[in-house]
Structure prediction request, 408 residues.
Amino acid sequence: MTSAVKRVAIPKNGVDYRGKVVLAPMVRSGELPSRLLALHYGADLVWGPETIDKSMIGTTKRTNPVSSTIDYTRTPSNSSRIQGSAARESYIYRLHPARESRRLIFQIGTSSPSTAVEAAKLVAPHVAGIDVNAGCPKPFSTSGGMGAALLQKPDHLASILSALVKEVGEVFEIGISVKIRLLETAEKTEALVRKLCGTGITGLTIHCRTTPMRPRERAIRDQLQMITDVCRSEGVACVMNGDVKNRDEALQLMREFGADGAMIASAAEVNPSSFRTSEEGGLLAWREVVHEYMKIAVGVDNKWGNTKFTLSQLIPGKLEVYRDITGSKNYIEVCEALGLEQLYDQAREVDTRLGLSQCRDATAVQKAKGKNKSAQAASGRPSTERSMDNETRRSLSERGISSFNMVV
Prediction:
């Protein structure tokens, strides 16, 4: 008689990671418009960028009537010394409840069970799960005992997950998961995975690289089969991450290694239509992807700096339009460079709301001044001295010059 397969129950408001191809958590490339674009092209779930627990604690939560988003904002700590619009609140996290909520996983950066719980409770009603980042190797994360630093303290990491499961997962009926990296040996990795699976989590993502490895180094999949076997024996969904280029490859790798799901990172950053299957047409041309992104970005009043960064990832760097975009100051300039006339009016409205219209005016003035100064320098005298009244202007023929003798 075949024994029943063990499986951790998926909470009522949670989501099962099994059979899913998902967007990886990425700083800057995982903001709201990028997540909505990935969902548009077929991502089953999306992870938001790692958000530090202490940055969420103390934020102001508001529903934005213009973008229909839920915004978590914070006033700059030196706002008392800043006057007027310069004291504008900064966004810490944004989500769109109608378009992504039940498919959004909030990734948290933390080193403490108590602050992790406090921060997670703020966003738990609006997401399908909370994921702990235990894999980021960058100093800004590890120096605070977060990210990959947690891999060296398995008991502490397990205590964070247990607290989130009990105080957030069970209360809000959503899943809790964790994203880790490979350890130095397969034995250490196996021991860690077993410990974490015993905390009550519903999912575990394994980034198939060790902490010292960088994205340019090829992912290591030697331990993947072992990890998926351990997760399956504990009833926890296992998602693989590392050098997954598109949905077709993701599904093939899931079958090969027995993974329950796969996560796409860098490939989706460059072209999120990588979530489309070959039967659906596969990758789309960059221009079509960028146009779709711009519609979403202006629709949610996305932060200008993030929009500009994302466009720099989506547009090939050798194109002339790439230089136009990197030199742009606001949404209307981008729309003009891309020929998106249908977005002109909306772009101007967004620029006004974000205070970017002044940038356009200032740029125009500077360009005009620059041209005037260049003309003056070329002549060696003020431009007023070079102007002529209509009465003093003479045609070429009057000056004895034939137009046929001009070089063109």
